[in-house]
Design goal:
By secondary structure, the protein is of the alpha/beta class. It contains seven helices and eight strands, in the order αβαβααααβαβββββ. The longest helix has 17 residues.
């Protein structure tokens, strides 16, 4: 946490200097998922106490809100029980736009919400599994946002990739991974 706080509070000019993107992925042991809300709350409070405006995005709430707005939440719940593979493809298409080089609903919504803030903090990102990885959303936001974008992500860092639920998330990470 110290490195994250130092970077986003005291050394903001260093964010994205090496990678060209304002993304920071803060990894934590998935076993700590229940305590992360408190960690996020304390971190956001520190940022605000330093005069920063912060948009806190609960990815779980965002996904469910988007599914409700698209009027497909009930269908998703039914499909989850019947055919997980088909559900994964459908959710990816609806929420991610089907391809990583175009903005989907999640990226569009995030972009709109963080336009006028100093820092964005995203958490509860495990909800994206199995239809998306956080790397897909970061790719869609690349070159679209300048706001420092902190993602709390339940994964284990291995070499140049992240493992989520013992599966490799991918090697995209231009983000600074802490």
């Amino acid at each position: 946490m110290e490195e994250l706080e130092s970077l986003t509070i005291d050394n903001r000019e260093r964010i994205g200097r090496r990678t060209g993107v304002p993304f920071i992925v803060f990894t934590y042991d998935p076993k700590d998922e229940l305590s992360v809300d408190d960690t996020v709350e304390a971190y956001v409070k520190k940022l605000r106490n330093r005069g920063q405006s912060v948009e806190r995005i609960d990815m779980r709430d965002l996904v469910f809100t988007l599914l409700e707005e698209e009027r497909i939440l009930d269908a998703v719940i039914e499909k989850e029980q019947a055919n997980e593979g088909e559900l994964r493809e459908g959710l990816s298409s609806v929420l991610l736009g089907g391809r990583t080089d175009e903005q989907g609903l999640i990226a569009e919504t995030i972009k709109d919400r963080i336009d006028d803030v100093d820092t964005a903090v995203v958490y509860r990102t495990g909800v994206l599994y199995p239809f998306a990885g956080i790397s897909s959303i970061l790719m869609q936001l690349e070159n679209e946002i300048e706001t420092p974008f902190v993602v709390f992500y339940p994964a284990v860092k291995e070499d140049k990739s992240l493992k989520f639920l013992d599966k490799t998330e991918g090697t995209y990470y231009r983000a600074r991974v802490i």
